[in-house]
Design brief:
Strands 16-13-17-18-12-19-20-21 form an eight-stranded mixed sheet, sandwiched between helices. It has a seven-stranded antiparallel sheet with strand order 5-4-3-1-9-8-7. A two-stranded antiparallel sheet has the order 2-6. The chain has helices at 4-7, 12-20, 68-78, 87-92, 138-143, 163-176, 219-229, 243-254, 268-271, 275-282, and strands spanning 30-34, 37-38, 40-43, 46-50, 56-57, 65-66, 94-96, 102-111, 117-128, 145-146, 149-150, 153-157, 186-190, 198-199, 202-203, 211-215, 234-237, 258-264, 288-294, 300-305, 311-314. With 315 residues, it is α+β, with helices and mostly antiparallel strands. The chain is built from ten helices and 21 strands. Strand 3 and strand 4 (46-50) form a beta hairpin. Helix 7 packs parallel to helix 8 (243-254) and helix 8 packs parallel to helix 10. The protein is globular. The longest helix is centred in the middle third of the chain and has 14 residues, at 163-176.
């Protein structure tokens, strides 16, 4: 059955069906809500639906459909009837629920005078089920340690393979420490609020006892702020992309911080077309490159390359 935190954001009639439905939340990844379209549950590579009586089905015609009025009601419930109070989260496209579940929100973005932001006519919601995989990066962490301590590392994978999940657990491992590496002060720039999944300022995910998290700031601004205020030993950043992101990472390197980063990609050849990545590599700021893959059954594999882009391990 679904957590009540998830059921509570749905309108009354859909709530009743969800409470009857035999949904396995341990396998569930996403719930897709689209205006005038079926309510879709994503379970790995499979999708299924429920009817008005909560019966599970693989027949699209039997699925509950969600109206615009119901989506408007869901947005009000998500924002606790104060959309203005959630403006910063809506600007990033997500609202975080207690428990760490995150709801992607898409509608019409509008910018007013003075750069104020407002989203109207919300028509699509993506409820992403929180499932912190404690310990998934333990084996990887051991492979990223050398004689001089932690290697500066970038995790590389296409969307949906798990680089954010691995990054989250690496942060927790580094902050906690083990028999080979003492716990380190980790500064996290959580631009989209996905790593810590804060709810009313409190992280819903365990990022370790020595971790400081700055949420909803740009990567470049966040790195500079953490360097000035929190004296981190490690800077962790998810999904580098903009030129200023790479510049800020370089600043952290020259301040003596270790780096744990992620990027979109699937092959070395793709990285060679990324100017920001090439600059970091050529200046010797990156020591390890981890390519994550997912097979047809959902099992992940990490291939680890050294600074010369030679594969040295698989875990």
């Amino acid at each position: 059955m679904l957590d009540e935190q998830i059921i509570s954001i749905f309108p009354k009639q859909i709530k009743a069906a969800l409470r009857k439905a035999a949904i396995d939340q341990k396998q569930l990844e996403e719930i897709r809500v689209r205006v005038n379209q079926p309510l879709i549950f994503m379970d790995g590579e499979r999708e299924y639906y429920i009817d008005a009586d909560g019966r599970l089905s693989f027949e699209l015609n039997s699925a509950i459909r969600v109206t615009k009025k119901e989506i408007d009601e869901m947005l009000s419930l998500l924002c606790q009837y104060s959309v203005y109070a959630y403006e910063d989260q809506l600007r990033m496209g997500y609202i975080t629920l207690i428990g760490g579940h995150r709801v992607g929100v898409v509608g019409e973005n509008m910018t007013g005078s003075g750069g104020s932001f407002r989203m109207s006519n919300v028509a699509y919601l993506n409820i992403r089920i929180a499932r912190q995989r404690i310990g998934c990066a333990l084996q990887l962490m051991k492979a990223l340690q050398g004689n001089d301590g932690l290697h500066n590392t970038v995790l590389i994978a296409p969307p949906g393979v798990g680089k954010t999940t691995y990054l989250r657990d690496l942060i927790r491992c580094l902050s906690t420490g083990d028999e080979e590496l003492s716990g380190m002060k980790v500064g996290v720039v959580d631009e989209r609020g996905e790593l810590a999944a804060k709810y009313q300022g409190i992280p819903q995910n365990d990022l370790g006892p020595r971790t400081d998290v700055l949420s909803y700031a740009s990567k470049s601004e966040g790195i500079y702020l953490l360097l000035r205020s929190m004296s981190p030993q490690v800077i962790a950043v998810d999904e580098l992309g903009l030129p200023e992101d790479y510049e800020a990472v370089g600043r952290a390197f020259h301040c003596g911080c270790k780096l744990i980063l992620t990027m979109h990609g699937s092959r070395i050849e793709e990285l060679m077309l990324n100017t920001g990545f090439l600059q970091l590599k050529r200046k010797g700021m990156l020591d390890r490159f981890v390519f994550l893959e997912k097979d047809a059954k959902g099992k992940r594999r990490a291939s680890i390359y050294n600074e010369r882009l030679e594969r040295i391990a698989v875990c």
